[in-house]
Write a structure and sequence with these properties.
Elements: E1 15-21, H1 26-35, E2 39-46, E3 57-61, H2 67-73, E4 79-82, H3 92-113, E5 117-123, H4 147-166, E6 169-175, H5 187-190, H6 194-206, E7 212-217, H7 261-264
Parallel strand pairs: 1-2, 1-4, 2-3, 4-5, 5-6, 6-7
Length: about 290
């Protein structure tokens, strides 16, 4: 990590040091510049290369499954935006290391270091096996649509435990589809613009006394499968909508595949993506 000497008297910001995990990922790259407005020092980490490190940043390439490395990563941190881990369906062994063991290491270390709040990147796939005919509030039963979704359910439960047991606050962001623009017609419903994503993190970071909260990460789309009434206290008011992209997916003939799970459930293709078999090395024939 880069050792920084920041003059606090020059310009005081709300936080001394924030940690962003998954900083090399899609959303991490979008959020990284915004964090400079909120903290004197932004510690960025990922298992992948982090690119150019700004003057206000500390950079650390860390495997979240490495307990000692994560413990060191959390030292001196006020709050965490945890985007690290695997964000798609994958073999369970891979998810176990990144999304379960890695998340436990983050929470265990955060509690030991006195971190006050974690913004946790959960997912709509924690509830992806609810039908598209339902509108979900934040209190609906968990219905993961794959092993990836199962790990997000674990994360929501783990964060609840750490709040109840230690008072470590968490806002769980059930992120929809956050890309520059929707890639499928389904994503017109689950779309979360980058601008709205950053605003959602800001609201989650700066609202007083969040306790343990869950909020759906979607923009103000014309059609919605979710209801954020219970999270209204966060003050999140999305400014963007997927309506501007509707022309990319013109209406087609009515879909008569009523037995297609990818059409019936909110998780879309994720409901059929797993479980995945672990990657195995090809067998080598013994030398004669």
């Amino acid at each position: 990590m880069t050792d920084l000497n920041v003059d606090r008297s020059a310009a005081k910001k709300p936080f001394r040091r924030l940690l962003l995990t998954g900083a090399a990922g899609n959303l991490g790259k979008q959020l990284r510049p915004a964090l400079a407005q909120w903290a004197d020092i932004v510690r960025v980490s990922d298992i992948a290369a982090l690119g150019e490190v700004a003057a206000h940043e500390e950079a650390a390439v860390v495997n979240l499954a490495d307990e000692a490395a994560v413990h060191a990563l959390l030292e001196g941190v006020d709050a965490v935006v945890h985007l690290g881990g695997i964000s798609v369906e994958a073999p369970f062994e891979d998810l176990l290391e990144a999304n379960i063991r890695g998340l436990y290491n983050v929470y265990s270390s955060a509690q030991k270091h006195g971190v006050k709040r974690i913004i946790y990147a959960s997912s709509n796939h924690a509830v992806g096996f609810h039908p598209v005919t339902s509108v979900l509030d934040t209190e609906v039963p968990l219905r993961p649509d794959g092993m990836y979704g199962v790990t997000k359910c674990f994360g929501e439960s783990l964060s609840r435990y750490y709040f109840d047991r230690f008072g470590l606050e968490t806002v769980c962001l059930r992120i929809g589809s956050s890309f520059e623009q929707p890639k499928t017609a389904r994503m017109l419903v689950t779309y979360l613009s980058y601008r709205d994503f950053i605003e959602l993190v800001r609201c989650s970071m700066f609202t007083n006394r969040v306790g343990h909260a869950i909020v759906y990460g979607v923009s103000n789309n014309r059609v919605s499968w979710v209801d954020n009434t219970n999270a209204a206290f966060l003050g999140y008011r999305p400014q963007d909508s997927s309506a501007q992209f509707e022309h990319l997916f013109p209406p087609s003939a009515p879909d008569t595949r009523f037995d297609d799970p990818t059409q019936l459930y909110q998780g879309g293709p994720f409901v059929l993506a797993g479980p995945m078999e672990p990657k195995r090395e090809p067998k080598r024939e013994p030398k004669q």
